[in-house]
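Before relying on records like the one below, remember that each one covers exactly one chain. Contacts with other chains, cofactors or solvent are not represented anywhere in the record.
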Amino acid sequence: MNVGIFNRVNSKVKEEDGMYAEWNSLPLEGGGRGVLGAVGGRDVVLAVVRQLASHQPSPLTTDAEVEWVLEVIRYGLSLPLSEHEALRDCVRVCCSWLAALLPPAAPAQPPPPAVPPPLAAEPHRYANKILNHLHNLFVPRPNETLAFIYQTELGGNLISKQAVLCHRVLRLARSLADSANLGSREWKSLLLLLLAAAAALLAPPAPLYGAAEQLCERVLCVLFEVWILACHRCFPGPALWRTLREQCVRWRHRAPLTEQWARVSLCLTARLLAHMYGALYPAMPVCEEDANLVPADMSAEAVMQSWYRILHTIGNPVDLTKPHLISHTPEFLQYWMTAEEGKEGKEGREAWVGSLAHIFHRAMLGLAAHVDAFLGRSTERWLVESSASGGGLFPGGQGTPGAADEGEVTPPAHRRLAKSFSTSRPRDKPPEKSTPRSSLMGLSSSRPSSVVPTTPPNSITSQVGDTEKPPLTPLRPKVNSIFHLFGEWLFEAALVGTTPANNIPQRAEGTPPPPSLSEATQKLNMISYQAGRAVALGTLCRVICSKQCREEVLAPYLARTYAALQRGLRDPATAAAVVLDAADIFRLDLDGVLVLVPDFITALDRILSEREPKLECGPIDKRELRKAAISLLLSLVAFPYHYKGLAVPEFPGCNEYAGMTIGDYARGKLSLICVSAVQVESSEALAVPLLSALYLCVRHNACVSSLKVHSAPPGSTVSHTSDYKARSDSSGPVSTEGSQDDFAADVRELDPSSPVFGAALVVRATYLVCHRLISSWKGDLQVSLAALELLSGLAKLHSSKPEAIERKRAVRWICDYIGVQCGRPPQAHSRDLHSCVVAAYTCLASWLCAPLLADPDCLAALLEVVELGISGSKSQGKPGEPPKMKDEKELKPVSMRVRDAAESLLMLILEQVGTSDGGKWCRLDERWLSALGHGKLRHFVADGNTLLSLLEEPLANSQEPQPTIVVIIRCGWGRFAWSLSSRGAPRCAGRGAAACARPVPMLEPPPRAPPACLPLPAAPPCAVDSAFPTLDAVLRQLNDTEAPTLFKLLEQQATIEKKVRDSEDNVMPEEYVPPEPVTEFQTARLFLSHFGYLNIGGDKKGALPRLTALDSSVAGFPGALRRLDATGSRAALTVHVMYVRAGQRCAADIVANATGDAVSPAFVRMLRGLGTPVRIHGHAGWTGHVRTSYDAQPRLPSEPPPPPPQHPMTPSVYDGREQVLYWSDSTDEIAFVVPSGHELSEADDHSDSMKCDVDGSCLSVNKGAEKAGGSWWDVSGGGGGVSYERSVSESERGERRALDKTRALSLELDRPAPPLSGSGRRNRDFTPKILIIWLEDFEDHLNLPLDDLVRYCETGVPWRRHETSALCVSGVRAGLARVRVGGAGGAGVLADGALLAPRLLPDCLRRAARFLARRARLNTDLYQPPHVRRRHLIQDIAQQYKKDLSEPELLESLFKAP
């Protein structure tokens, strides 16, 4: 904004140096009394005016007669107020004659006085003279008018009649300005008339009451409205402008002047902004009553000139804090000289001085509204308050008492003062509380709720997060420009009562002393001005916080702002206003802002450490104040780590923090504030960002402590657990206030300089969050999710001592939380509650470690909650109850989601028990074995959820055959490989009989006696023998043709047996030797038999067989295995990372930045910290796209190695074609991809593409070969295409009901669920789109083309538009990183506006991405965990490729080659 033409203005006390110095002001002497005033003409006036006031035709026919009558009227308008009838007739005649300037209108009733023909012919000739004569109506009458203004003893009837006449003249003036065709002389006379009227009523210092006060408001309203019309039609000259300014300066002790000034100047400001910035600038709302105050066709030049002149009409608003300047007028001098001494005079003077504080506050509100309008912060609250405010011009909304006709007393409806600008008050109320909330014409419209709260704190609309403030427009003017316009006033107002110059008022010579010159009284007056000072400080904060990126603020402005803010923060009366509007002050790269860090920390301690702030809040909404304080806290938590060695900066001449660094000063204080705030916070909406602040504070302190541990002296290793009281020994939650006080007390006792401070803080934070999670937050989903995410993050900080008792206690707390949530009554169970339980199971997974699982008690607690989640109850009930066995329990899980989460935790426990690391995904599969030359495999499905692939050949080229088998196990938890070999001898033994020496007996064995084998006697015949027919009889009866062959075999066998018996006595026994090893085995049969899958005849009747053979020769079977392998056992997530240069708004340009090397080094460091580079080819994990994921193909020796990159390394190397950044843990795996632009060019060539509608419907088209169908949502048997199109709200509804009912009501949980037709059962994972965007200019987050950017973020997984999240990161000049998180719930441990150290940025971004993905999955009713999807795929394979074999046929097939 070009403000150079506006800066040639006087802001000093002397007006002679201003822009009107070359012109003199016009006198407001009135019309005079004429000749009749010298000789006395009362009777003449009564006789002449009575006749002229009638509606009879006028007897005046010549110009001389009209001139003479005008002289009579001139004198009649100056008669005493007691001659009311004469005054009324004179006013009627003047109004009727001036109406000749107006367009013809319908005749009024009663008819007005007749207009003389000469005047009707030339109305402009007499209009100027009539307007001048009307001055006499407002000229003070000696000994009468002053009493009318100052005293209340006069009858109400006289006051009302006088007010009627004044209102009538004002209505006439408004009509002339609206409709009459006035010349420059008429406009000048009209404006001077209104100025004279206002001066007569407003210049005296005494207070006004009743109709007189309303008349003052009406005069000012008409004056400014007519003045604006004059600026449009006949711009006033400099003399008139100087007269207006001089008069307004004399009226500043009147509250209506300030309000009308703000009202008119704000309307002009709205029009000025429209002319300067166009339609894209946020429109400043104007109430309906003022919508036409500024003419629609008023030129831009006229608006600009009028706006600036009106803005400076009342001079410097800060002069209102100086009674000696306000009282330096002739009217005040006359009042002090004539006012009665005594109690009434003293009370009147005190009331007048006290009202200045109220007027100053209103003036600052108006000034703040102007600033907010230029910042684009105007809101719709202006219109809401204007329409909702009640009352009218008079107290109680009633007319003036004693008036004969309400239409004559009050102005018509279309001319009344807007309700939102009414300031009428009853007589018995003090001035400080006289103005209603909506009086200041919506000055709070462009003000936040800090000054005038729109709703009480306990109302629904005041809940934090319900209405978020819109961001500032990028078109806003620079900070320097706003300070050029308003800075002088704001800086001076912000220091009211703090500088010695303001405490010693100076008065001009000859001026009587004002009534408040004593030091004590002056101090009290300065205290009363603190409300206006707080508004000025808040406005300064909003201006300085509107600084845009790379904008430079002049050093003098920064210095004066810091000085004002420091004094404001140290004053309890104004600190709240500073904190409320300075939430972003440390995020804007302001030079020297660190000088305010100690004072802001002190203010935050007073606000957040207890439930009620220790500051004077006044009208400030305490909820909004805490919200702003938390935002400031998020920007400060990184300072002790980032500036740990920087000395605390101070103002020149100060020495409060000598020798202290920011790290030493702020570490302990910020930690105590975070812990205390979390402990006492009662609002769930504010608890989420507080938890983020606590985690970041603990995380930064842990980094500082880790650096100190290595340099700590030997004797300084103090345990942080031995002296800490255990609060979680009992399983029940603790909710007493006394227990909560211990958390902050323990942190207060810690030594921030100790090397173990960070570790001790981790323990305290863990206990505090666990305690509040069970006692206070278990009923709120968002807070519970944030608390559990914080505990997951703290688990990694406990890893330095995994065997410590604190880790076990935390696990017990989380187990108790799960038990409490699952044990709530049925009516309390909901989707949100089950989501909390699922998140708690996920949190427990992050706490698992080998030392923890080695503890029997802790392992028992984990298995108990696993049992609770799977079966719905625990085997070990209450103390004294006998345990329930598995067969006795009725399986009713809380929900299927909870059961799935418990199963996942159980598998993680089983993987880690007894091992140093968890189970890993095996790279071996059928393709590897085929590449090594091995034969076919046998495939079986065991128990309906495990697929076994058996290879009966040894992998190695062994010289000796062994019963060896390779088993590839595919289950819901992944793919694993076993290699089993059975040996009959030690590995050191060779082949053959000589290899194993015979054992040598220790003693000679005694000789064996010859065996005495006696033949058994023949059995006597019995009746049973005749019951069985002989073989001959049976064969003859069957007439079997093969009977001779059977008899022949029997004869041969009998001959052989006889020969053996005959030769037994003659043959010497040979020595027994080991047989030769066999070379053929049925190792598959042995394996299945050893593991109990070949229990012949052991299966229950009617039950499904435990083992199902699969036919691998069917077409599509390899593709089915690839689809199963392409579904990971961990939650897969793709995060796309982008770099945005300053001002970029085109998606193609943003993506193209990845191919260049001119990126910020901080961005490169962040990118490298997100994950480990991996090559796509051969990577066994998730790679960011289903087409290339889990593709662990072996690289043959004949294949050439990958060529080195020809181009220089740029971020685009991780675009997913050759490399990605990969990160994984036991539950999640993330691929970080940097799009390079190839995604759109290859979209038509690749097999699958995703389309998404805004309303949530998804479209996936898969049309490719085996790998194209290799994803878990493609259920096609072969390589053919499958079209999938459905909406969550329509097509899934029926399938969801069927599946949920089947899963929820089934008690046979071990039995596989019945199959569902089509693809509906598995197409349930809508992976959210998560983008990490690095911004060179933080303001660009307002214009990010997200809809275009997601086109480059193809992953092959269905997605929905409303689940797209962007984590914006921008580097701060000091080295920190500023984070922008969209949405009200934040991103777990990462809240919106947090400042992070670069070292912690990658880890926090990963956690935020995982939290957003988990929250999206919890919000999806049909989401199924990976192990459930893999289990369903295995069941589909079993149904589609099974062999229909009976049990004998299955056993026979094991003896044959596959």
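The longest helix spans residues 343-375.
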